Amino acid sequence: MIKEQWMTVVKNRHLALDTYEMILTGELTEKMINPGQFLHLKIGEGFSHMLRRPISITNVDIDHQEVTIIYKTIGSGTSWLSKQTPGEKIHVLGPRGNGFPIEQVTNKKLLVIGGGVGVPPLYYLTKKLVEQQNEVTAILGFQTKDAVFYEDNFKKLAKTFIVTDDGTKGEKGRVTNLIPSLQGDVDYYYSCGPTAMLHAVSNEMKHVPGYISLEERMGCGIGACFACVCKTVDETDEKGYRKICMDGPVFQSNEVIL
Amino acid sequence: MTNIAVSLPGLELKNPIMPASGCFGFGKEFSEFYDLSKLGAIVIKAATLEGRYGNDTPRVAETSAGMLNAIGLQNPGVDKIISSELPFLEPFNVPVISNVGGSSVEEYVEVAKRISASPIIRALELNISCPNVKEGGIQFGTDPNLAAHVTEQVKKVSTKPVYVKLSPNVSDIVAMAKAVESAGADGLSMINTLTGMSFDLHKRKPLLANKTGGLSGPAIKPVALRMIYQVRQEVDLPIIGMGGITSCEDVIEFLLAGANAVAIGTANFLDPYICEKIIDDLPAKLQQYGFTSVEDCSQKGVAL
What is the largest CA-CA distance in chain A? Predict the structure, then answer.
């Protein structure tokens, strides 16, 4: 089974404030069937950058062997990524981690809640959930109007609500502001975003079973270095911790301490 | 035919390449990438007496040609390592070296006693140089008298050879090496990480939750080479060299400086196949530079 490949950049475009969308092609896409997994990307030439960057999968087109990722330029690594042009190769390990467990989910009412760069993995998730005959409502939070992306993509699949911190687009405030009016008879929820948001969401939704996807600085990305761990809620848990890169990044909402 | 086998106290290595402690877990994760039996040896993550959770996150940060880590010796404790982690490594027919951590002489001694009794373990790497735990660890690695004392006590109970892992965070590395040599160390492993920091401009505070961390990767390679070279001029113990190795050329540099074998750490994160690739390419590379064997290369180094 291949776990690595030099994938070819097909497209790399500015999508929103400090946010880019990249499409990569290669046979590795055939393994990318579970939403919520991530690609571990090598950055730069040779050994100039010693750590890979974990970037979640936004969408996969299996027929054309194309995978889409969306990333924010935060430091020198993601800035390098934003400068790659079509035809260039990027070394990819992946898909890594465990995605959202949705195989059995069908004919359900679902709520998807994303914040900032936590939104991308929820797109592939929503696409799969809709294919499986579920009714999905999406709440997507961003800092400001210029940071909003994929609104139209989501609207084609789900009833979609946009929230911005400053109110320049959609509702003003936090994603949690909308939850009381939308959670009604929801069967499950799925969320990805900053830890503070996940904390607020899981509190607000504590009577509904849900899954959350965590972000953390990673070392190896394969479970060997113990850089990205978090504690379990259950104090009697045998290990007492989970590795985000390997056991996650998706966890049950009440499994780990946020 | 270039001979890349190396014979060291307790360790018959089919090649001089081993993953460095802390960068390879207990081997399981890397076994999905290649056959672990190709490795010269495996150095497992540090064992302490009780299980430890380690530090808060973030625990890692990238730096120029390197990285900082402050994991904090997370491990399930020596007994669980023996019962749950070591059996997995048994079928691979690779010598396993256990890194031994601790916060007190008593803890080092107890861990060494228990883990050296395991038939799977061929040698110990005494970790007196972890910069990321609040107590113990590094103070044993920066004071020659303490280093000698803990080495002597561990030697009394260990049934396997003891390689002492030296910290580079000292002004006189040769004094440290000589101190553990006279205390009965069977070998040295060097260097551990250099203490460093990195700041988050947005949060206006240290990037690592532990504030400081250990710097590793190509950025520290020249420091490692210099220290190995200095120690080799004065000390006869075998040296397992490490610090930023990413290629066969790097391995040869370490052998020339005076190392007898090498460990590869941070590079495993960037390329999980790196150890296997270096092992495959090493014979031809040695030949290219005119060496008939790994030992030939080390010996030439000593004579510099």
Answer: 52
What tokens were used for A35?
């939403």
Q: Looking at this protein, which amino acid is placed at residue B302?
A: V
Q: How many CA atoms lie within 13 A of B108 on its CB side?
A: 32
Residue B129: DSSP 8-state: -
Instruction: Count CB-CB contacts under 10 A for residue B5.
Output: 13
B191 labeled part of a ligand binding site: yes
Half-sphere exposure of A240 (CA within 13 A, CB side): 9
Q: Which of B296, B221, B230 is nearest to B253 (CA)?
A: B221
A192 labelled binding-site residue: no
B217 belongs to an annotated ligand binding site:
yes
| Contact of A56 with A69, CB cutoff 8 Å | yes
Domain map of chain A by residue range? 4-96, 109-215
CB-count exposure of residue B210 (10 Å: 0-12, 13-18, 19+): buried
Cα B56 to chain center, whole Å?
23
B297 belongs to the catalytic site: no
User: pLDDT (tens digit, 9 = 90+) per residue, B67-99?
Assistant: 999 999 999 999 999 999 999 999 999 999 999
* A31/chain B closest Cα distance in angstroms: 16
Q: What residue ranges define each of the domains in chain B, with the CATH number in brackets?
A: 6-53+77-196+215-303 (3.20.20.70)
Q: Which of B20, B36, B26 is nearest to B214 (CA)?
A: B20
User: Considering only CB atoms, which chain B residues are within 8 Å of A50?
Assistant: 62, 65-67, 217-218, 266-267, 269-270
- Block means of pLDDT (10 residues each) for chain A, 258 residues, are 88 97 97 96 93 97 97 95 97 96 95 96 98 97 97 97 96 94 90 95 94 94 95 92 96 94
Neighbouring CB atoms inside 10 A of B1's CB total: 7
Which of A222, A227, A239 has the CB atom closest to B69's CB atom?
A: A227
Distance, in Å, from the CA atom of B102 to the CA atom of B100, rounded to the nearest integer, reads 7
CB contact under 8 A, A217 and B59: yes
Name the token pair of A203.
């509190």
Q: Which fold has domain A4-96?
A: Elongation Factor Tu (Ef-tu); domain 3 (2.40.30)
Which of B32, B45, B62 is opposite residue A49, by nearest beta carbon?
B62
Among A81, A87, A100, A90, which Cα is nearest to A38's? Answer: A100
Query: Is the CATH number of domain A109-215 3.40.190.10?
Result: no
* Contacts with B30 from chain A: Cβ below 8 Å: 222, 224
Q: Single out the residue of B163, B170, B226 nearest to residue B195, CA to CA.
A: B170
Would you state the structure tokens that stand for residue A126, as one six-digit string? 């929503």
CB–CB of B201/B163 below 8 Å? no
